[in-house]
User: What shape does this take?
Amino acid sequence: MDEFGSPGKPYGDIGRMQQELHTLIERMSTEEPVVDSRRSVSWQAHREAEILCDPAIVGELRDYLRTMPDNRRRRSVYFILGKLGQRAAAGDCVSILLESLGSEADKYVLSSLLDALSGLNLPADACMDHIFAYLKDDRWVVRHSAIGALAGSNSHQAEDRVLGLLKATTDPFDMIYCHATLGRIGSAMAIPYLEANAKSQKRDVRISAQAALEKISRRVIDASPTMAGETIQ
Assistant: This one.
């Protein structure tokens, strides 16, 4: 069966596409007094949004953001862009998300936007100045999402910035988020800092550092044929 937003269901009628997309966003943004969130309208709508894959939706989402001031609905749009970008029109979705960073102020909207970026590949030449700035944000929900947003970056500067925060912070949660991102983008340069945190007395800090070390070590070995069969100490 063809679902809304699938390539098998083309939009000859733009008005119908807009109506169905706006209805989905409304459902995603619904607040309900339910005990089991999995039975909620919002939960079901989010699951539907996760499988959208028609690039024709992207332009409508961009236009929607230009005119919609409601924060819950904006968060829903960013969620859709993050999921859609994993299936189709990745470059357009990344561009919209990066462009939107400078126009949001609400911490929860910013967090949702940055979380959407975390699942996408950011090109090495992408402007990430706003993300870098949010690494120093006093609001932990924004700061942690900014760390995660860099997990898809191909830029060495992204690793440098995450390492800079890791070296400076005393917050164990900052450390854990940095470890997770370095596990995805870190190079051999990150290993000494992760080795130090792998000896932490804080269990979650120690375990997350060890996990990042294992991932980086595998990448270093895979990238260096001469090291095949050797163990990184």
